[in-house]
Amino acid sequence: MSWAIHSSAYRRLLKERRWEEPPSEVTMRDYERDLLLNAWHQGYGYENGRKLTDFELLAKLQHHGAATRLIDVSRNMLVALWFACRSQTDKTGILLGWHISNILGFEGRSEERGYNEIFGAGDTKGLDTGSHPVVWQPPVVTKRIAAQSAEFLYSRVCDDPVSSLAFIKEKKAFLAIGLTPEMKSVCLRILEDSFDVRQLTLFPDIDGFGYANSENFGRYSNERW
Question: Which residue from 73, 113, 147, 174 has the least number of CB within 10 angstroms?
Answer without folding.
Answer: 113
